[in-house]
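Sanity check. The docking grid for s-citryldethia Coenzyme A depends on where the pocket ends up, so I'm generating a full predicted complex first rather than guessing from homology. Inputs follow.
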Amino acid sequence: QTGYFTYDSGFAATAACTSDITFIDGQEGVLLYRGYPIEQLAENSNFMEVSYLLLNGELPTSQEYDDFTSLITRHTMVHEKIRSFMKGFQYDAHPMAMMMSVVGSFAAFYHNDTDVNNPKDRHLAAIRLIAKMPTVAAAVYKNYIGQPIMYPNNSLNFTERLLHMMYGVPAEPYEVNPVAAKALDLLFILHADHEQNASTSTVRLVGSTGANPYASIAGGIASLWGPAHGGANEAVLNMLDEIGDVSQIDKFIAKAKDKDDPFRLMGFGHRVYKNFDPRATIIRKATHDVLDALGIDDPRLELAMKLEDIALKDPYFVERKLYPNVDFYSGIIYKALNIPVQMFTVMFALARTVGWTAQWLEQHETADTRIGRPRQVYRGAKKRDFVARHKR
Ligand code: SDX
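Predicted complex below; grid placement will be based on this.
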């Protein structure tokens, strides 16, 4: 469906692009990655297999899976100079500010093979980004807590490696908790791609100019950081802590409904889903399972469920079809894994790098290489002649 923009006629929705990767039916609450329902992938697959699927269009055979995971493993280290680059950050800089800068700096370190017209270079850039994001995320975390940056341990799998780099220290061995590794793997599957959301559209718009792949993904990280987008998972935790207990819920619901109050119920609502976000349903159940398995009793879970229950019975939310989205429960699991709130969106960016790179590759491998050029509905002054209003 195409649209057009003129002075008078308003505008019709214009599809941003064509894509074969992810399908969303917002009315029905359906999410498919390359045709596979997110519920089945969450139940039966793992993040590396889903990454291969998003990048290549089909699930991998055993050989393809082994080749892909060893290719990723081979690229987990970052250029040694990036470690000194990171030493320049204030220790308490927001982790997303550090991640955005470090990934953007890849364009200065991996600049010899970024010819976007060369399929080999494009594929290598995608593999480098997916493989190095856990190393960058862990380094950002270590910088934030003032501990030495850890090197990747390539004998571990993707999420085990991340946890080891985040919580391990050079002074002693670190045993990865399999419950934590599995929980992260599930969250990464659910956050991997989501059609043309704000950050993916940013990646495609930057990419459409032929810009360096690392610059395109750095643009996606910048866009994801906002509290209306990926930053919502951090905002949900802060909101739950501000609400404190169930007795305060009605007050915050009233604030969220008050047009004069900028407060919105974080983790609620979605531009596309006008039904349950299927990812939120999966994460709600996983949150119970993870807290039970780790023997953690986090009152935030009961508070979040009560908040959801009250909101879903409130006409304001019902009329506007506002349901919990992917960010509503994810922070409670991250908290259970001792991940600080400021790192929640870094986790989201780490997982979404797969979707961003898959969409960036698709853009360069299909006819969609025309430069993106959104139009507008012009509501300014009509054409008029110049008449100076001040005496020279
Ligand atoms: C993500 O696009 C994606 O796919 C994103 C994402 C992905 O995987 O990439 O799914 C990830 O970003 C999820 C969304 C995370 N953000 C939040 O949880 C922040 C809180 N949510 C809102 O800011 C809002 O719902 C948005 C930003 C998500 C959507 O904004 P829209 O499209 O402007 O919302 P809308 O058009 O559906 O709003 C309709 C009405 C409006 O009121 P009226 O003008 O009709 O009176 O609902 C109101 C809105 O003010 N509304 C809310 C609300 N969300 C919408 N009111 C209170 N609380 C909310 N959360």
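Relevant for the grid: The beta strands are 5-6, 10-11, 22-25, 30-33, 36-37.
Also worth noting: Confidence is low (pLDDT under 50) at residues 1-13.
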